[in-house]
Fold this sequence. Notes:
This protein is of the alpha/beta class. The protein has one domain: Thiamin diphosphate (ThDP)-binding fold, Pyr/PP domains (Rossmann fold), CATH 3.40.50. The protein has eleven helices and eleven strands. The chain has helices spanning 22-35, 55-58, 71-81, 93-99, 101-110, 155-162, 175-187, 209-213, 219-222, 233-247, 268-275; strands at residues 43-47, 64-65, 86-92, 115-120, 123-124, 130-131, 166-171, 192-197, 216-218, 229-230, 254-262. The strands form two sheets. Strands 1, 2, 3, 4, 7, 8, 9, 10 and 11 form a nine-stranded mixed β-sheet that branches. It binds iron/sulfur cluster. The site of iron/sulfur cluster (SF4) has 11 residues, from loops.
Amino acid sequence: MARNWSDYKTNSWVQWCPACGNFGILLAVQKAFAELNLPPEKVSIVSGIGCSSRIPYYVKSSNIHTLHGRPIPVAEGIKLANPEQTVVVASGDGDLLGIGAGHFVALGRRNMQIAILLHDNAVYGLTKGQAAPTLPLWVKTKALDSPNIQSQVNPLLLAFASGYTFIARAYAYHVDQLKDLIKAAINHKGTSLIDILQPCPTYNDIMTKEWYEKRIYYLTSEDPSWDPLVSSSEDFDAKAPKILNKMTEWGDKIPLGIFYVNMSVEPLDTRIEKILPGYLQYPPAKRPIEIKS
Ligand code: SF4
């Protein structure tokens, strides 16, 4: 049965401010689910706490709104218990890169097939706009008494160092490009990150729609030969410097698109199969997992 994005709408009132970037992300998620023809009971969105973390209420699928910083361990539990489930984590930069940073790193080390949608607005919008981990050093938004004195976290570099095998950046108002990236991230057989630049018109008066749209460009439009695909360790050695160079570009120009895809790293279930032969052959309830005390 073909599905339409509106099949994933719920009756909940969407409680975001007018023009919030979260609206674009919501529509892109619904369109991606529809184009992948995902049955609502077979896909789970897991969120933490923040404005963006209300998204489970607005998408008709099997979702969980969890605790601050904890969506990733809950998502991992869902995936381990039910490997056939499509699992997406959607949360903010404060939730995933602040209090949840340890889980963000650990997920990459496991290379589980979970897609992370990072709603990246650089502020804690739900609690009146404090500086979040991706707010650049010395930036003073209208919600701050003084400029930010902490350096920003680069989500792409953190994911790369942690072992994520699909890393991309998107812009919340480019709905169709974001939708295509979400589909690719969900289909990737490993841990994926999409860092989604998401204007917060209420509290971030510096990194606005106008600010972003003067700077963003797509990797493939500037360099048609851009190739983020890594298929071996030799390939990694050859391509990593150029990939890292693009991941660190920020300021007058901000690249979007797929930075890195590594198909040569084993996902977690393949690793489990090596120590528990037969693991992949059984339906989840019958897997030969022996619990040792
Ligand atoms: Fe969106 Fe910012 Fe409003 Fe939160 S405070 S809903 S992030 S515009």
